[in-house]
């Protein structure tokens, strides 16, 4: 018996191992017991062994009638662990400012101040778009914006458990989360990046399931939700464009105009809290979220990454295609940017230093998780690691 995957599955599992290996490589540097590369080898062998064992155990797993109850119990325990980690980790001790950048945004808006000139705990200005204010606000009011990640996991878990896929497939997706060092980094760092991507992809999947033949049936609500998610992070425009553009061209001209009008009005209303205390134009040009969100990748690559979704949208047949094409684009953008940095500055400086923030690679993990979930849903195929 030999490991077997279809090409897309090979890609996604290769990406999974590669991304998490980078995290192991970087953070195992703090453990002097063994060289970094040994930890990377151990990690890869562990993950492969677990998934191979899962393949052999699939028949047994699929006979367990109370698997959903088991997974609910596990989800609650894991949620409690994530909440405990958030509670114990002092954000001010972290060398990442994802959480404090979001906190600055929320606090500034609540105080009626322009948020992009105020410094976070590392002395940086926020790069968060206005939509994240609404997503992060409930958790800010609970006392810690880092709670966003555990609650997103809980929501995602419910979605997996209620999905009509086999027991071994559900376990496989949960294992992808549990065995991912990149995910634990997100939780410890109180980051919102992965949660942001998960929520956008779940929105696309749910909307596609409900309005498969006519996603613009409730175009006013679609326009508002699209505007809200677009104003969370620039990269979410990629899956949203792939999901909507080709279908948008099919609707009547009058509905097109109404959708655009609703979208623009929604953008304005969602952004209004940020506009309450606008500084001078020079300050806005210097201090705005787009300067920070585009600092790592060359502008030409960003432009190409935003152009391709319009083309790929015409090849979409189901929501798994949206995720697949989005992963192609995002992975290519990350890979090319990383290679350029390595050529300019060297591999070690980009991994161990701050020339390239490898934490941005974690945004690919939600696409991997939800691709497998959608593929399982559509084909009801085991997609086993072993070809028997």
Structure annotation, total helices: 19
Q: How many strand units?
A: 0
Shape: globular
Distance between the termini: 6 Å
User: What does the average pLDDT come to?
Assistant: 87
Main beta sheet: none
- Count of domains: 1
Instruction: Tell me the series of helices and strands, N- to C-terminal.
Output: HHHHHHHHHHHHHHHHHHH
Helix content: 55-70%
Structural class: mainly alpha
Gyration radius, rounded = 21 Å
Strand content: under 5%
Task: Describe the SSE topology.
Layout: H1 7-27, H2 36-56, H3 58-61, H4 67-88, H5 98-110, H6 131-142, H7 148-162, H8 167-178, H9 181-188, H10 193-210, H11 219-230, H12 237-248, H13 253-275, H14 281-286, H15 289-293, H16 299-312, H17 319-345, H18 347-352, H19 364-379
Helix pairs in contact: 1-2, 1-19, 4-7, 5-6, 7-10, 8-19, 10-19, 11-13, 12-16, 12-17, 16-17, 17-19
Can you characterise this structure?
- With 388 residues, the chain is mainly α.
- The chain has one domain.
- It is 69% helix and 0% strand.
- It contains 19 helices and no strands.
- The radius of gyration is 21 Å and the shape is globular.
- The N terminus and C terminus are likely disordered.
């Amino acid at each position: 018996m030999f490991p077997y995957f279809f090409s897309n599955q090979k890609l996604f599992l290769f990406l999974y191992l590669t991304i998490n290996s980078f995290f192991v490589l970087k953070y195992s540097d703090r453990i002097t017991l063994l060289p970094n590369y040994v930890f990377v080898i151990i990690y890869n062998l562990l993950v492969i062994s677990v998934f191979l064992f899962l393949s052999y155990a699939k028949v047994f797993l699929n006979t367990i009638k109370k698997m959903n109850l088991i997974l609910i119990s596990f989800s609650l325990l894991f949620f409690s662990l994530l909440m405990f980690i958030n509670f114990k980790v002092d954000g001010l001790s972290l060398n990442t400012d994802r959480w404090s950048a979001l906190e600055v945004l929320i606090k500034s808006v609540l105080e009626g101040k322009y948020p992009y000139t105020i410094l976070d705990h590392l002395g940086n200005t926020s790069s968060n778009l206005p939509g994240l204010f609404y997503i992060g606000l409930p958790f800010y009011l609970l006392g810690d914006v880092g709670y966003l990640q555990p609650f997103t996991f809980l929501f995602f878990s419910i979605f997996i458990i209620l999905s009509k896929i086999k027991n071994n497939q559900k376990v496989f997706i949960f294992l992808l989360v549990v065995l991912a060092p990149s995910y634990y980094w997100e939780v410890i760092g109180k980051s919102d990046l992965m949660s942001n991507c998960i929520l956008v992809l779940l929105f696309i999947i749910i909307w596609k399931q409900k309005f498969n033949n006519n996603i613009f049936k409730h175009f006013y609500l679609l326009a508002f939700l699209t505007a809200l998610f677009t104003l969370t992070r620039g990269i979410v425009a990629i899956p949203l464009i792939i999901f909507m553009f080709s279908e948008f061209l099919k609707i009547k001209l009058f509905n097109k105009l109404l959708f655009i009008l609703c979208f623009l009005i929604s953008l304005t209303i969602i952004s209004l809290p940020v506009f309450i205390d606008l500084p001078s134009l020079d300050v806005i040009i210097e201090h705005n979220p787009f300067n920070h969100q585009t600092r790592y990748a060359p502008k030409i690559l960003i432009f190409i990454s935003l152009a391709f979704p319009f083309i790929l949208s015409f090849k979409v047949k189901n929501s798994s295609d949206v995720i697949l094409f989005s992963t192609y684009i995002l992975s290519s953008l990350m890979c090319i940017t990383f290679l350029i940095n390595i050529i300019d500055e060297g591999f070690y400086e980009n991994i161990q230093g701050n020339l390239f923030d490898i934490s941005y690679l974690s945004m690919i993990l939600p696409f991997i998780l939800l691709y497998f979930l959608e593929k399982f849903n559509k084909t009801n195929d085991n997609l086993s690691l072993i070809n028997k």
